[in-house]
Amino acid sequence: MVKICCIGAGYVGGPTMAVIALKCPEIEVAVVDISTPRISAWNSDHLPIYEPGLDDVVKQCRGKNLFFSTDVEKHVAEADIVFVSVNTPTKTQGLGAGKAADLTYWESAARMIADVSKILCTNLWSAELSKLAANAFLAQRISSVNAMSALCEATGADVSQVSHSIGTDSRIGPKFLNASVGFGGSCFQKDILNLVYICECNGLPEVANYWKQVIKVNDYQKNRFVNRVVSSMFNTVSGKKIAILGFAFKKDTGDTRETPAIDVCKGLLGDKAKLSIYDPQVSEDQILRDLAMKKFDWDHPAHLQPLSPTSNKQQISVVWDAYEAIKDAHGICIMTEWDEFKNLDYKKVYDNMQKPAFVFDGRNVVDVKKLREIGFIVYSIGKPLDAWLKDMPAVA
Ligand SMILES: NC(=O)c1ccc[n+]([C@@H]2O[C@H](COP(=O)([O-])OP(=O)(O)OC[C@H]3O[C@@H](n4cnc5c(N)ncnc54)[C@H](O)[C@@H]3O)[C@@H](O)[C@H]2O)c1
Q: Domain UDP-glucose/GDP-mannose dehydrogenase C-terminal, which positions (predicted)?
C-alpha cells in the first residue's frame, strides 16, 4: 500500500490530506504535527479548523486510511511520499525582517526528513520561484481589478461589467476578477514580500518595486474603504455603532490570517467607532486577538503572541447573530462574502437601524437596487455611486 505522510496538520495539510484519503482509499495517509493539542483536536469531534464538509470527510476516513499523529519520525520513515506544510511566517527580526520568510520550521522538518529518509533533488530556485510567482500573479490580478474599481467609481463605470467584458477574452479568462475590499489569506502578502526580498538581494530594485505595488494597492483599497465609510457618515463615526458582517478572509473558512477585516476594523476603531462584529465561523477570542496583534505576529507560535487579547475592548463587541450585530447600528460593513449576508431580511435590518442607514458592501454581495428601494444608502465597490455619496469627498 502506498503511504503518504504530511508534516504539518494546519489549514493546508489537514484538509488536503483528508480529501486525498477520501478520493484514494487505496492510499494510507498520515498527517503528523509537533503540536499535541492540534493532533488531539484532529482526533476529536471538534476539528481544529472549519471548512464546509470537512467534518464528514474526516469522519469517513479517520481510522481507516487517514491517521493523525505526533509520531513524526515514524510516519516520515515509512512514507513513499512526504508533503511538508509547516508554517513559514514573515521574519519579525534580523536580516530581512518584515519581508523574508522565516524558514526555521521548514528547516527543522527538512533536517528530520533527511535523517530518516531519502531526498530527491530538483532545481531549487525554480521550485522556490514557481510557488512565489503563482501567488504573486494571482494577487496581482486582484490588485489590478481593485485599482480599476477606484477608477470605475470616479468615472461612473461598473467594475463587474468591465470584469465580465475583459474576462471573455480567452487570454485573460474570467477567474480572479472580482473587485473587493482587498485580498487576504496567509500566503499572498507573505509570498510577495518574500519575492520582493529576493529581488532586492539580487540587485533588482525595479522588479522589487513592481511587485511591492501589488501590496500597496491592496492596502490602498482597504484605506479607501474606511475613508468612504467615514466621509459618507458626515465625516465622523465617533461613538457610532457599526456592524461588521464577516471577519474571515473569504467565505467558507474560519481563517482570519491577513483578512482585510482587520485593517478596516482598526481604521474604524482609530476613528472611535463602536464595532459589533459577527462571523459565523470566527470566535470572539480570535477576533480580539487579531485586532490586538501587530503585523506578522499571527504566523508565529501562540506562546510568542500577545497575552492580553486587546486594549480597545470597550469599543468592540462580538456577537453570534447578524441581526444582533445590526440592531441600532448606523452602518453595516460587509467584509466576507458569506452566503447568509445575501439573504438577510434587509427590510427588517433597515427597520432596526439608525437613520440614515448605510450599507458598505466590501464584497459586492447585496442587491444594491433593492436595498436603495428600501431606503439604505449603499456603497458597493467599483459600482456607480449612490446620489448621497456623489456629493461626499472620497477621502475623509
Ligand atoms: N496556495 C498556497 O501556496 C498556500 C496557501 C496557504 C498556505 N500555504 C503554505 O503552506 C504552509 C502551511 O500553511 P498552513 O496554513 O497549513 O499553516 P498552519 O500554521 O495552519 O500549520 C502549520 C503546522 O505545522 C506544524 N509544524 C511546524 N513545524 C513542524 C515540524 N518541524 N514538524 C511537524 N509539524 C510542524 C505546526 O505545529 C502547525 O500545526 C505554509 O508554508 C504556507 O505558506 C500555501
A: 243-368
pLDDT for the residue 396: 47
The answer on 98 and 150 residing in a single domain is no
The span from the first CA to the last CA of the chain, in angstroms, equals 63
Told to judge if 121 belongs to the known catalytic residues of this protein, a careful annotator would answer no
Is 363 annotated in a binding site? The answer is no
* pLDDT score for 133: 96
Note the pLDDT of residue 312: 72
Q: Using CA atoms, how far apart are residues 18 and 24, in angstroms rounded to an integer?
A: 10
DSSP-derived letter for residue 101 is B
Per the listing, cell 469517513 goes with 60
39 lines ligand 1 (CB under 6 A): no
Range of the domain at 167: 124-180
Examine the domain organization and report whether 171 and 209 are in the same domain: no
Cell numbers at 274, concatenated = 463602536
- Annotated ligand binding at 256? The verdict is no
Comparing CA positions, the residue from 233, 189, 220, 258 lying closest to residue 333 is 233
pLDDT the model gives residue 120: 62
pLDDT band at 364 (very low <50, low <70, confident <90, very high): very high
